[in-house]
Every structure is written in structure tokens, then in C-alpha cells.
Amino acid sequence: MRPLFSCKNFMNLPAVNRMEKVISCFNKSPEAVARLICFPWAGGGSIHYARWGNVLNCSIEVFAIKLPGRETRVKEPFFENMQQIVDEVVGVLLPVLKEKPFALFGHSFGAFACFAVADALKRLHNLEPVHIFLSGASAPYSETRIKTPKRSELTDDDFLKWLVSIGGTPPELLANPEVLKLFLPALKADLHVVENYRCHKPDIPLFSCPVTCFDGKADIPHDLQAWKSITSGDFTVRMLDGAHFYLKESENEKSILDYITKQVETSEMDYL
User: Fold this and answer.
1) Could you tell me which of 11, 2, 40 has the C-alpha nearest to residue 24?
2) 6-43 pLDDT tens trace
3) Mean of per-residue pLDDT scores for the chain
4) What sequence ranges are listed for the domain Thioesterase (predicted)?
5) Does 244 qualify as catalytic in the annotation?
6) 47: part of which helix (H) or strand (E)?
7) What burial class does residue 221 get, using C-beta atoms within 10 Å of its C-beta: 0-12 exposed, 13-18 middle, 19+ buried?
């Protein structure tokens, strides 16, 4: 049984320890002029995004979010709602986000976490990203999203069938029952969080920064256009070949990173 998570104990850690607990950063670049904060997909870890720091231009430092229940935090209980994610991420990142411009990226479950954190930063601290990149997800207030079946409530067998259908899960993982026992709880816990996350369509745009939505052409249709309501700035949709985990394919990843680099560097000039 995992020990109960204690917010008090977490906040009592020195700031540098809290940062290392929640953030993976493979290429620390104090001289970077901007940061890219990346949020994992459901059940995912931080490694996929953290290695982007070794690929992106040295002017952009990559922070990849580590959630409880996986990687070095495997003994911690999973978060049960989006507010817990927001509170932890904002609490850890707030001091450094005031230092220099930052952008946010999230895929699928990570897109919702990305949006929720951006919303809190704007409402509570008047901090806004220079760009928000959202991938593989309908806007949380869209009819498409609201009508989506709750996958976290499926039996393990039905859940695995659904997992195979969306692609992106390594066959060796699906064929290894012991590994699956470790993987499924994190995935289901994250889906439970996002399936119970609710927010209203904004009456007025929350942000003025550009927002870009990515998606796989062969993925199930997402209501990407609904995201346009969150910003008064530029809104762009970019469709790439592939299914739900299209961003794992090397050509798509290169295309995404080239685009992010161009957009963030352009935003840096506007910021200055």
C-alpha cells in the first residue's frame, strides 16, 4: 500500500527538492530565454518530453511534469482530481515562471492539465504563457468531450481492448501481464481525473497568447475548434499523419519541435 501523500510534508521540502520531485529537466539551461513546460498523457511519465530538452534550440529549456504514482514518485498515491495537479504544479513552478517567458504543451490528458494550469496562472497570478500548444484532445467544455464514454470505469479486459484500438502502446507492454499491472492503475487514475474535470466555456477569452492545436489525422475526431474560445490571440490547427500517438513518430515529432521552436522564438521577440 502506498503511503498517504502529505501536502504539508511536500511543502516543507526545500524549493530545489520540490522542483526535482515534480520536474524532469535533462538539459538545464540557465541562459535559455524561454521555457517549455510539458504535461504527460494519461499514464505517461516525463521522459518522452524531458529528452526534448536535448533536441530543442538551447534558447528553450524544457521542464517535463512528473506526476505521483510513476517514475521516482512511484510510491506516492495518484492524484484524484485536477485541482491537486494544478496546486502542485503552480506551487512549484510559480517562482521560476516569473523569471522569463514560458510556453505550455500537453497531449490528450496532458492538454487538459496544461489548460487547467494556464487558467490558474492567469486568474490567480496574472501570468500568461507566450504560447499554448494543445494536442489530441477536445476542449473540456465541448459537447464532443462531455459525451465521451468514461473509459476508466471499464473492466481491465475491455480497457485493454480500447487501449489497443487507439494505438501507441508497445506490443511488448500489452503482452507482459506483470508490467501491465504497474501501468494500468496510473492510466486509469489519470483518466478518472480528466473524465471528472469540468469547466464552462469562457464568456470572454481567458488568454491573449496564440494557441495551437495538433492532432493525428487517423485519431478519433476531436473538437479542436472549440479551443478557439480560450484566446483572443491567433488560433491554429495542425493535423499530422497518424493516430492518437502520432507525436511519437519521428517525422511528426520533428515537425512539432520545429514548429514549437519557431513559435516560441518569435514570441520571445514580441515579449522583449
Assistant:
1) 40
2) 444 545 555 668 899 999 999 999 899 999 999 999 99
3) 89
4) 35-263
5) yes
6) helix 47-50
7) exposed
- Which residue shows C-alpha cell 483518466? 191
SS3 annotation, 209-235: CCEEEEEECCCCCCCCHHHHHHECCCE
User: What is the value of pTM for the model shown?
Assistant: 0.90
DSSP labels for 72-102? Answer: GGTTSPPP-SHHHHHHHHHHHHHHHHTTS-E
Torsion over CA: 85, 71, 222, 164 (sign): negative
Q: Are 82 and 118 in contact (CB under 8 A)?
A: no
Segment 212-247, tens digit of pLDDT: 999 999 999 999 999 999 999 999 999 999 999 999
Active-site residue, selected from the candidate residues 24, 46, 108, 135 = 108
Q: Are 47 and 57 in contact (CB under 8 A)?
A: no
Running DSSP on this structure, what letter comes out for residue 207? Answer: B
Q: Distance (Å, rounded) from C-alpha 209 to C-alpha 131?
A: 6
Asked if residues 135 and 145 have their Cβ atoms less than 8 Å apart, the reply is no
| Catalytic pick among 107, 131, 192, 244 | 244
Taking a C-beta distance cutoff of 8 angstroms, is the pair 232, 208 a contact?
yes
Residue count of the chain: 272
The span from the CA of 23 to the CA of 256, in Å, is: 21
